[in-house]
Every structure is written in structure tokens, then in C-alpha cells.
Amino acid sequence: PVSDPGDGSFGLLEGIASKVNRDGSQPVRWWLRSDSNGESSLAFALRAKMDGDERSKLIAGNLLDWLYFTSGLFQTDPEKPNFGLLFWAPGNTQALYQDNDIKAILGCIGTSGILETDRWDEVLVKNILGNFRTTGKNGFRGRRIENPDLLRDGWISYMNRGTVLLQPHYEAWTWASYLWLYDKTGWEPLLEKARKGITMMMEAYPNGWRWTNGIQQERGRMLLPLAWLIRIDDRPEYHRWLRQITDDIEKSQDESGAIREELGALDRGDYVPSKSNAAYGTDEAPLIQQNGDPVSDLLYTCNFTFLGLHEAYAATGDEQLKRMSDSLAGFLIRIQVSSDKHTSLDGGWFRAFDFKNWEYMGSNADSGWGAWSIEVGWTQAWICSVLAMRELKLNLWDISENSNAGKIFDQIRSQMIPDSLLSD
């Protein structure tokens, strides 16, 4: 069925599934993800900033209103341990992923700055602190928290745990939000916990890291927290860490600008290449079967690395970062999907791109998000947002420089993390 586009009041659908029908069309993913909605708001806000499009401005605000005020995904009961956290999607109240929350948080940070409003400041602070107070004493929160376990055990038990997960995909961007909120408040525990986690992560690089769909994405996810750590606590050591990561990424950046996917040690991977025909398509999986395959991942790597490079260059002025970012931007612009026949695909980016044969191609083994999937948040939102920020000569840190979140922080923090717990 064809209907008029909505205005975001009821959210934004997840995107396009990887299945290709005989006529070349692809089914829509009828799912409303919290992260995809939050991060997509920024892309619409930046569109409005670029050309004054009032409809995009309306959609940006409506998406955040839906996410935090009307969807039921944001947990608002201060008596419950999950207060301040986002459910993954309607109908899924089981898994609490900080990696999902942080993408919504970053979208909210940016959209609030672009629209110059404090409308979402309260929920923003609660969302960050909801994750912070369920982060362990080492700065790690783990792969995810099960909501029934959290309701049973209470948030304090998670705050006191010695969790360590050396896997940036799950942990890294959340640290960036703690650093951002520290900059607005000066509340030391935010800096201390983020800095401890980042330090442990970088001291374990590379052999101690786990990887999700590939090691390249883990490198890309570390760029943002390192950039923002340098913003507020500039030390030579942090610049060395940033250079170490960017050097290793650049080794895999093709002359086209594409970043080649890379597998780490297989015993350190969550989702390794399919080992048999029977296993193909039964679980999440990388886009490559072996290192050297000329494939880029626009769902897990290029998209997030693009933001990381952009923010890292803004924080340091390092020309290496600018060169890599410029090259990646050119690549992404050249491979944007163009289709007059299938308008639902036009203007998007599929997940897998073979930069040797110059076509969208890769292993389609992933059971949920295969080679030809289009994810509105993870992929489309961040590619569009970074391209827009480049055009506007802006960055996410500076966009949110005048945030008033710090003015309401103490009241919310004392409610969510009482002083009595800090003094113990």
C-alpha cells in the first residue's frame, strides 16, 4: 500500500530488509526502534538547518517527542530500577542495550542544539544517568542488561559490579555521553568512570579486544570517546591512543575512500563467518568470509567511523583525520543508491559494498541485517548527519555547546544517584 509520508508523530520505521523480490523490490522492516528514531531526528534537524525546510524541523521534533513522551519506550517511574532507560522497541521489554540508548542520546543532544531548545533536557539527563548508574565501577556496563533481572536485583547491584567488556561496539559511545554531560556539569564521577573504562579498553588493544561482526567496527567506535576525552582532559597519552586507532583504520582505507572490513581472531568474535552451508543465514554474521575481501560495511563500520573521524578532527585539527574523513565522504557520496523504479530504495545506502567490483555485494549470511538491508538510523542517519555537518562546518560537540542540561542536573542526579551512595 502507498500512503502519504507521515510527520514523525508516530515514529519512523526501521528501514528495508535485505530480501530482494523477483521484481527487484524489497520488503519494509515494520519495526519502530528507539535508537533509529532518536538518531534520525538529528538528520532531519540538520536538513532544516541547511535549507530552512520547516517539514524537516517538524519531523525532527516529533520523533523525539514520540520517543521520549508518547511511545512508552522511555521508562519514567522513578521507583523502578529501569528509570531513565529506553526499551529497544514496542513489544520488546526484555533487552536494555546501552549501545541503543546512546544513539538516541546523541541524536537528542544534536537535535536540541540545532533547534535551540531545552524541551528534551530533562529526559536527556535521565537517559544518560539511567545508563550511568547501571554501569559498573570499572566503567563497563556489559553487552546488555535484562530488564527482568534489573527489576529484581536493583540498579545499585549493577553500579557496584566489576564488569569488564573489552568490546567498543557496546561500550565506547556511552562513554562519550558521560564525557559530554561532565562538560556541562563538572560532576567528577562522569569523567572518572568514562576515563577508567577508556583506559582499560586502550591498554587491552588490540589483542585483548572482543569483536562483534568484525574488528574494524570496534576501532571505528573508539574514535568518538577518544575525541571527546581530549576535549575535556587533553593529554599526550590520549592523542597516542587516537593515532594508534586511526593508523590501523587507515591501513584498510582503499584509494576509493572505502574502509575494508577485517576479522579479528576468530576465538574473540561474537559473530564469525558461517562455517557451513547449514549455518548460513541462521545468525548474525560478517559481510566477509576472510580478510582481504574488498567489502565495506555501512551498517557497523563506515557509518560510525565517519562520525568518529569528523569529531576527532574537530577536537584535534589532525590533518590525517581530515584526509581520512574527506576520502570516506567522497566514497559514501559516490555509492548512494539511485533508482527511479524502486523509489523506496532511492537515496539510501545498503549495508555491503564491494569496492573492487563497485557494486553493492557481500555475504548475505546475516539472518537479520544482510548485505542489501537499509537501516534508517544506524546507516542513513549518521551518514546524512555527518555530510550535513561537513557542509555547515559544524560538529556535534560545538552544536551542543550551549546546552542548558547542566542547570537541571543536580536535582535529577540527587534523585537518581543519592549522595549517600556516593559517600559509601
**Which CATH top level class fits?**
Mainly Alpha
Major sheet: arrangement of strands? 2-1-7
Q: Low-confidence parts lasting 5 or more residues at pLDDT below 50?
A: none
Question: How many structural units, i.e. domains?
Answer: 1
Strand content: under 5%
- Give, in order, the helices and strands: EEHHEHHEHHHHHHEHHEEHHHH
Question: Which key features would you list for this structure?
Answer:
three-stranded antiparallel beta sheet, globular, 49% helix, 424 residues, single chain, Glycosyltransferase, 16 helices, mainly alpha
How are the elements arranged and paired?
Blueprint lengths: L14 E2 L11 E2 L4 H18 L2 H17 L24 E2 L1 H18 L5 H12 L12 E2 H7 L1 H5 L8 H18 L2 H16 L11 H18 L3 H15 L44 E3 L4 H15 L2 H16 L17 E3 L19 E2 H17 L3 H4 L9 H8 L2 H5 L1
Antiparallel strand pairs: 1-2, 1-7, 3-4, 5-6
What does this structure look like?
It is built from 16 helices and 7 strands. The strands form 3 sheets. It has a 3-stranded antiparallel sheet. A two-stranded antiparallel sheet has the order 3-4. It has about 425 residues and is mainly alpha-helical. The chain has a single domain, classed as Alpha/alpha barrel (Glycosyltransferase). The model has no long low-confidence stretch (mean pLDDT about 95). The longest helix has 18 residues, at about 35-50. It is globular, with a radius of gyration of 20 Å. It has helices at about 35-50, 55-70, 100-115, 120-130, 145-155, 155-160, 170-185, 190-205, 215-230, 235-250, 300-315, 320-335, 375-390, 395-400, 410-415, 420-424; strands at about 15, 30, 95, 145, 295, 350-355, 375. About 50% of the residues lie in helices and about 5% in strands.
